[in-house]
Structures are given as structure tokens and as C-alpha cells.
């Protein structure tokens, strides 16, 4: 989810290269949509047609080869253009940075930015393209902008008469757990286009069907599904190598907590952005870390524990300040409730250290949560249990809706 304050700073991305693809990797339990496209018969439906590829560094085959390079090596599909989301095609751009269109030096193909002057592929950008292929790794959070890029590109495909293919990929947090809040329409933005749950438990292919049918995009959609993926799987179960999806999502473990921990900064709590372990820290200047850790551990939250720590961010608002708080220990990642964990942290900080709470922008807070109900309940002193209970009807409705679009 790539709003600036969520992933400001961070090290440069690890870029998948042709050299990496040459390594002999063991077969994996999961065959990705891009593997299925190239090794099965689906590619024959693209023969003789001009294709545009929406991808970044995370769009790799199970052999760690970029989908663009893999298609070029395949030799039977003609790529006309590449389209890049936030962070760029090779993943080397900072969060929120405006990206201009350019020519990729490795392939000589034009790269049109979908995070620059426009976020919708224009008629000019799609000229001569018959089919758009989407191959980007999502992280399972409504607020991650890659799924918004997919939706916008689907809208353009529908408007200009292009086919849209999604090469499906695993949800690294699994496909079973769904967590509120569900976005409310007044808070629609690029970090939340449609009323889905914050942790949606769907693959990008499943989301594409949901967006296309239920939310009325109406594109000519085809999803190339995976083989071997099950809803109970989190990332390690797939056997696939993790590729850093954006500067502050360096590991698969980060995705487990991100749907909730990406939100704690809305009330002034630093979440580790700008430091070495983003979204695995929570604190600020002047907090008693041991007291916070003791309080949170007494809550016995599923799959997670907390230890006191201190750190000094190297970038962002808190750069150079010594912060104190807690580090999250992922004991049983498949059991962790990311949003509930974040709520417990925020409620604990509010109750133990009320003077440190800072809401800089009500509008930004409500936009990021996708609702004003969190802010109202939090400021009214409600518990984490009570806040979750507020959201139960809407999240149950979303669960029922998503059942119609599950592919696995």
C-alpha cells in the first residue's frame, strides 16, 4: 500500500535479474499464473497479438525471471509496451515519487508510468495494444496501491476495448482470514477504491473478478489461475522466493502485520518506517517500552508477542530522534490478526500514555482507515474489542460477497 507515510524511506529494492533466473531453483508446490501462461497452452491465445505488460520487479516467474524477460525468451508473444506502478518497473523509485515514462534500457521497450501524470492508461498509451497482462505481487491489504493500479487499468481496458488478463499470484498472508474495517464510499481514494475489507484474504485474480463484476468495471477479463495454491497457505508454504515488493516490504513476514501496522502512524505512533524493520515496531519519543510490552503481552494476542526496544529512524518525520516502544515478535504468523494487533497497540498507547497521541489530519486518518468509525471510537475511549465489534456486520457482509469470487 504505498501511501507515502506508509513506506517513506527504506533501502533500494532488490531487482530480479536475468542472472537470478539462470540459477537452478527447486520446484515449488505452487505454479504461478505466469508459469501457467508460458508453460501451458494459454499463450497460444496471444499469438500474433500486441501485448502490454503491467509489471514491476515483483512480477517474476517461479524461476525468478521477470515476466517481461520470460515472455521475450519465450519468443511467441509480442510485447509492445510496459506499464509501471508506484516505485517503477524495476522497483527502484521512492514511495510517492512521480515517475515519468521512459525506455527500458534492458529491453528497449517503452515504459509508461501509471504513477505520474496519470494513473489510468490513456488512449495514447494503449495505442496498438490488444491485450493487457497484469503480473504484480500484492500483499493482501486494501491500502496497497498495486490493486488500485490494476483496477484503473481494467477501467481503461473496458473504455478502449482491450482485453485484460491477470496472471494470478498468492496472497502472502493467506486466503482465510478477513479483517475489518470495510471501506466506506465517502473515503474512496487511491489507497482504497472499493468497499472491501482492509485484510481481504483474496488473490489479485479474485479481486479482479470482484472489481469487474460486482463493482461494474465490465472489462473483457481473463484470469490465468495458479496450480497448487490453497487458501490455508501463507508465503513460506508456497516454496516461492520472496521479492521485495516496495521499499518497506522487504520480507514476507512484513506482509503479515502490514494491513494493521501500516495504520498506526495515523495517530502519531511510529511503525518502524524509515528504519531497518518497517511495520515491526511501534512507539514514539517518551514511551515506557517495558510498560507497553508488559501490557500488550498480558492481552495474549494470537500468534504474536512484544518486547521493549528503542530505535532511531534514518529517514522521515522522526529522523534522528530516539524512539522507545515495542518490537513485534511473530511467533505463529498464520494466526496473527494484523488489524486487531494494531488496534491493541493504539488503545494501549492511548490508555497508558494519553498525552502522546497526535492526530495531525482528521481527513487523512479517516481516508487511511477508510471510515470515520475508528477515529470516533478511539477518541471515545472504546476498547479494541468494542471497535472490532462495531465492524462485524460490514465485514460479515463482505465475507459473503467475496465467496462468489473465490477461485481456490
Structure explained in plain terms:
It is built from 13 helices and 12 strands. It has 408 residues and is α/β, with parallel strands linked by helices. It folds into 2 domains: 4-238, Rossmann fold (3-Layer(aba) Sandwich); 252-391, Aspartate Aminotransferase, domain 1 (Alpha-Beta Complex), CATH 3.90.1150. A 7-stranded mixed sheet has the order 3-4-2-1-5-6-9, sandwiched between helices. A hairpin with a 6-residue loop joins strand 3 (102-103) and strand 4. Helix 5 (146-160) packs across helix 6 (204-214), helix 9 (289-298) crosses helix 10 (338-352) and helix 10 packs antiparallel against helix 13 (384-402). The chain is globular and about 65 Å long.
Concise overview:
By secondary structure, the chain is of the alpha/beta class.
CATH top level of the largest domain is: Alpha Beta
Number of helices: 13
Chain oligomer state = single chain
Say which CATH homologous superfamily of the largest domain is assigned: Uncharacterised protein PF07075, DUF1343
What is the count of structural domains?
2
- SSE series: HHHEHEEEEHEEEHEHHEHEEHHHH
Global structural class:
alpha/beta
Fold blueprint:
Layout: H1 4-7, H2 18-21, H3 33-39, E1 50-55, H4 67-74, E2 78-84, E3 102-103, E4 110-113, E5 131-135, H5 146-160, E6 163-167, E7 179-182, E8 197-199, H6 204-214, E9 220-224, H7 235-238, H8 252-261, E10 281-284, H9 289-298, E11 304-311, E12 323-330, H10 338-352, H11 362-369, H12 373-379, H13 384-402
Parallel strand pairs: 1-2, 1-5, 2-4, 5-6, 6-9
Antiparallel strand pairs: 3-4, 7-8, 10-12, 11-12
Amino acid at each position: 500500500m504505498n501511501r507515502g507515510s506508509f513506506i517513506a524511506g527504506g533501502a533500494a529494492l532488490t531487482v530480479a535479474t536475468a542472472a537470478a533466473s539462470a540459477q537452478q531453483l527447486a520446484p515449488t508446490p505452487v505454479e504461478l499464473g505466469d508459469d501457467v501462461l508460458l508453460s501451458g497452452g494459454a499463450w497460444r491465445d496471444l499469438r500474433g497479438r500486441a501485448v502490454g505488460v503491467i509489471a514491476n520487479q515483483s512480477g517474476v516467474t517461479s524461476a525468478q525471471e521477470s515476466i517481461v524477460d520470460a515472455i521475450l525468451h519465450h519468443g511467441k508473444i509480442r510485447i509492445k509496451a510496459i506499464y509501471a506502478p508506484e516505485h517503477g518497473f524495476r522497483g527502484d523509485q521512492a514511495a510517492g515519487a512521480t515517475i515519468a515514462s521512459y525506455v527500458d534500457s534492458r529491453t528497449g521497450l517503452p515504459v509508461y508510468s501509471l504513477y505520474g501524470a496519470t494513473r489510468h492508461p490513456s488512449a495514447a498509451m494503449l495505442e496498438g495494444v490488444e491485450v493487457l497482462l497484469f503480473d504484480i505481487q500484492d500483499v493482501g491489504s486494501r491500502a496497497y496501491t498495486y490493486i488500485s493500479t490494476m483496477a484503473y487499468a481494467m477501467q481503461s481496458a473496458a473504455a478502449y476495448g482491450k482485453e485484460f488478463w491477470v496472471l494470478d499470484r498468492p496472497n502472502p498472508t493467506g486466503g482465510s482470514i478477513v479483517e475489518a474495517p470495510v471501506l466506506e464510499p465517502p473515503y474512496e481514494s487511491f489507497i482504497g477504491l472499493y468497499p472491501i475489507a482492509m485484510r481481504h484474504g483474496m488473490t489479485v485474480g479474485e479481486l479482479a473478478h470482484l472489481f469487474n463484476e460486482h463493482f461494474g468495471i465490465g472489462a473483457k477479463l481473463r484470469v490465468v489461475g495458479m496450480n497448487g495454491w490453497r487458501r490455508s497457505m501463507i508465503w513460506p508454504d508456497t516454496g516461492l522466493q520472496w521479492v521485495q515488493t516496495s521499499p518497506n516490504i522487504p520480507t514476507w513476514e512484513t506482509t503479515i502485520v502490514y494491513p494493521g501496522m501500516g495504520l498506526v502512524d495515523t495517530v502519531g505512533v511510529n511503525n518502524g518506517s524509515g528504519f531497518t524493520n518497517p511495520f515491526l515496531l511501534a512507539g514514539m519519543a517518551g514511551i515506557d517500552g517495558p510498560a507497553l510490552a508488559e501490557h500488550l503481552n498480558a492481552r495474549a494476542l494470537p500468534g504474536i508477542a512484544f518486547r521493549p526496544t528503542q530505535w532511531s529512524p534514518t529517514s522521515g518525520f522522526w529522523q534522528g530522534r530516539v524512539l522507545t516502544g515495542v518490537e513485534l515478535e511473530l511467533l505463529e504468523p498464520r494466526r496473527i490478526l494484523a488489524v486487531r494487533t494494531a488496534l491493541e497497540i493504539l488503545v494501549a498507547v492511548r490508555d497508558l500514555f494519553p498525552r502522546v497521541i497526535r492526530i495531525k489530519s482528521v481527513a487523512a486518518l479517516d481516508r487511511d482507515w477508510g471510515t470515520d468509525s475508528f477515529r470516533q471510537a478511539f477518541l471515545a475511549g472504546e476498547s479494541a474489542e468494542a471497535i472490532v465489534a462495531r465492524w462485524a456486520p460490514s465485514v460479515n457482509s463482505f465475507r459473503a460477497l467475496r465467496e462468489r469470487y473465490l477461485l481456490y
